């Protein structure tokens, strides 16, 4: 996973600080083949920039930069609902395109995973306002976009599978003998050796022990 930097712009016209509860992630591309994530971030606070346009995260071939907290409004969707309900991610058109897209896929998958969302939560700028954006995915009637969503879903599934495989089904070597004993005696059910026990579960175990069953 690439670096994720938080570099918020100050409160002002393009970051009013209005709180939102995001329900979607909106994908854009910068429409600038030369600018990096840092260039994009710096443009937001450039005194000669008088456009009312902003976004939450920008990603390039080497890093992601968060310019606006994800629970605050940014102006990226060209649509009131889009701005009020979604996190805007700009994908840079500069540098190594494949690497940049891979970074965006991983970033988006992680964000979906953390929120318990599926890829149905992914929107294009186009979905809100009809703008041909992210333009780098608009080829062949949005073939690139469909590929992006498929990649994000694959990455999301990997994260979900990792969660399952991380559950250790074997007790530690130092506890193996006693674990087997407790299982044989029927004191414990023999599942999830690494999980913690609650007080009520302990009471059941103590009771089973006292009753000899
Ligand atoms: Zn856009």
TrEMBL record:
<feature type="domain" description="N-acetylmuramoyl-L-alanine amidase">
    <location>
        <begin position="12"/>
        <end position="144"/>
    </location>
</feature>
<dbReference type="Pfam" id="PF01510">
    <property type="entry name" value="Amidase_2"/>
</dbReference>
<dbReference type="InterPro" id="IPR051206">
    <property type="entry name" value="NAMLAA_amidase_2"/>
</dbReference>
<keyword id="KW-0378">Hydrolase</keyword>
<dbReference type="GO" id="GO:0008745">
    <property type="term" value="F:N-acetylmuramoyl-L-alanine amidase activity"/>
</dbReference>
<comment type="similarity">
    <text>Belongs to the N-acetylmuramoyl-L-alanine amidase 2 family.</text>
</comment>
<dbReference type="InterPro" id="IPR002502">
    <property type="entry name" value="Amidase_domain"/>
</dbReference>
<protein>
    <submittedName>
        <fullName>N-acetylmuramoyl-L-alanine amidase</fullName>
        <ecNumber>3.5.1.28</ecNumber>
    </submittedName>
</protein>
């Amino acid at each position: 996973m690439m670096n994720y930097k938080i570099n918020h712009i100050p409160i002002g016209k393009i970051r009013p600080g209005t709180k939102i509860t995001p329900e979607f992630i909106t994908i854009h591309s910068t429409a600038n083949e030369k600018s990096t994530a840092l260039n994009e971030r710096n443009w937001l606070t450039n005194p000669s920039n008088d456009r009312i346009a902003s976004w939450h995260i920008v990603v390039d071939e080497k890093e992601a930069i968060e310019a606006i907290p994800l629970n605050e409004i940014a102006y990226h969707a060209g649509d009131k609902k889009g701005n009020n309900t979604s996190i805007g991610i700009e994908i840079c058109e500069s540098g190594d395109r494949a690497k940049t897209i891979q970074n965006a896929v991983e970033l988006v998958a992680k964000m979906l995973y953390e929120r318990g969302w599926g890829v149905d939560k992914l929107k294009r700028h186009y979905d809100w306002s009809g703008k041909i954006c992210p333009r780098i995915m608009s080829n062949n009637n949005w073939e690139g976009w469909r590929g992006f969503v498929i990649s994000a879903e694959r990455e999301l599934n990997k994260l979900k599978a990792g969660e399952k495989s991380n559950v250790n089904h074997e007790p530690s070597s130092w506890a193996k003998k006693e674990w087997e004993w407790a299982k044989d005696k029927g004191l414990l059910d023999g599942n999830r050796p690494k999980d913690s026990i609650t007080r009520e579960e302990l009471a059941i175990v103590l009771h089973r022990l006292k009753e000899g069953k």
